Amino acid sequence: MASFRELLAATKEQIREVDTAEAAQLVQNGSVTLDVREPEEFEQGALVGATHIPRGQLESHIENRIPNRDVLIVAYCAAGTRSAFVAKTLKDLGYTDVVSMDGGFTKWKSEGRPWETPQVLDVRQRNRYQRHLSLPEVGEKGQQKLLEAKVLLLGAGGLGSPAAMYLAAAGVGTIGIIDMDVVDESNLQRQVIHNTERVGQRKVDSARQTITSLNPDVNVVTFDTRLGADNILELLSGWDAVIDGADNFPSRYLLNDASVKLGIPVVHGSIFRFEGQVTIFDPLQGPTYRDYVPVPPPPELAPSCAEAGVLGVLPGVIGSIQALETIKVILNLGDSLRGRILAFDALEMTFREYKLRIDPENQVTYANRDRIEIVEFDDICSPTIS
To answer: How confident is the model at residue 307 (pLDDT cuts 50, 70, 90)?
Structure first.
């Protein structure tokens, strides 16, 4: 039976080793750096931007974390032993260009090469988000992205309620809420972020109470104000995404023009009686609201939910999908609804998908952002948020 030293020597004969100088050049040229040390080692310091997969999780996680088998990978550990075995394992798994850094992180750091102290989850957060951490597509790096993300909700009503709660549960670090209404008893049939004891309370305050009790990691920023042309650019600036919970055309056009001007994606949702729709309007990557609805219909053809009614559970379905799509945008995960409209019919219990294309006649585009003028649309109908 071979000794450990003999096994290591045999392994190194089958892989390519590089010293720290060559590894630094490969990293500078865009290779993937793979840290295979244990979590407690990684937390003390790592190469800048390294992908962390502990040696014991390599086989089960590598294909999702680094799916391209032809990319150049620089694997490293503390001194170069574990990374040598990793390089051999990756070769056996079909990865074509893997090198092991001799001397490991210890030598790299001692030579004064660049490194960082990674942001890591504490023990409590690891427990709270463990189902996310078990997903290779999310993992600790993805959870950190969520904790650093900033999402603004237009409305703390039917759509904003489930969206806010699921974003908070997922660990989205900063959630903003724009709403100038108060909780009414008639809201409680569908706006699940509020409760009976809070009837008469400001909606933004009620929503903040629910979110912070659900997840203390979340910073809730409230805007108890009317959304208008005079403040929308200031309100939207600095957010990673906006969830549209408006139920009227003036607010939607106002949001569209401001989000296009700022280049911020809008996760749009709408509900009416027993039907709902979800899509993503991303001014940098696809169609926007004005491509979808170039001209607003007259008020008599666009009744609100208050006038036409809505099944109470419907906003829960649509708002949850909005939260899901927002998380996918933050993590750049899967296929988003950019350029697609997902339509739900609760009576038929069916989902249908429609393609949405850019309208060549639409001039309100990110390319024309400097020419976009933010104006009110009060002549269409009264702007409200529900």
So the answer is: low
